[in-house]
Amino acid sequence: MRRIVTSAFISLDGVMQAPGGPHEDPTDGFSHGGWLVPHMDEATGAVIGELFDAPFDLMLGRRTYDIFAAYWPDIANKPEADAGTLAIGAAFDRATKYVATHRPESLAWQNSRPLGPDIVAGIRALKAGDGPTLLTQGSSTLVHTLLAADLLDEIRLFIFPVVLGRGKRLFAENALPAGYRLTRSATSGSGVVMAIYERAGAVPTGEFGPDRPTPAEIERRRTLT
After folding, report:
1. Nearest partner of 114 among 72, 93, 86, 142, judged by Cα
2. Whether 194 contacts 158, CB under 8 Å
3. What pTM value is reported for the model?
4. pLDDT for 16-50, tens place per residue?
5. Of 45, 48, 36, 44, which Cα lies nearest the Cα of 162?
6. Domain residue spans in the chain?
7. Which of 90, 126, 175, 204 could cross-link 147 (Cys pair, CB 3.0–4.6 Å)?
8. What is the tens place of the pLDDT at every residue in 177-224?
9. CATH superfamily of 4-224
């Protein structure tokens, strides 16, 4: 069985839209594209690079696929690209790219395949098979689908010290309640918090307060039902 891992750059209020530049995704009037760029540093880049050390395939939403397909295949021709960026580009090029799309005929980047008309069924079939980790990048709508179907094995968050107020968010209200266990965390000099969580059963719950609620507490609870 294959693991599904999502890696997301998010703001403090959970926005993940257009982190890398103003032209990535300005839909719905989003005007803060490129919000992660001033906070990127060597420590953050090193943890990001670790994602691609082991074999992986990509699983992408159509909008993120189009962004990647317009950038990464040409990365070797960009003189400003450093060795780490070139290595990521080569890894993306080699990887099989599974795409949630209604336009499969237009997947021009090499090794690209549609997930099929039933996205969840396509993902379940991939997960049940053999192969490397299935890694998502960006793809907020696809991540919402994965969370709603409880298909994620690991969430890697890169939390940047900004509040954006609006934009596409990592978590939607249809996410299935699920417990996660922190397996690793680090903080960069620029204030980026990096945290890796693995799926860990149901949501544990508890209660603070006395075993016997006061009459006032009983009345408060009654008004909420």
Report:
1. 142
2. yes
3. 0.91
4. 999 999 999 999 999 999 999 999 998 998 888 88
5. 36
6. 4-224
7. 175
8. 999 999 999 999 999 999 999 999 999 999 887 788 899 999 999 999
9. Dihydrofolate Reductase, subunit A (3.40.430.10)
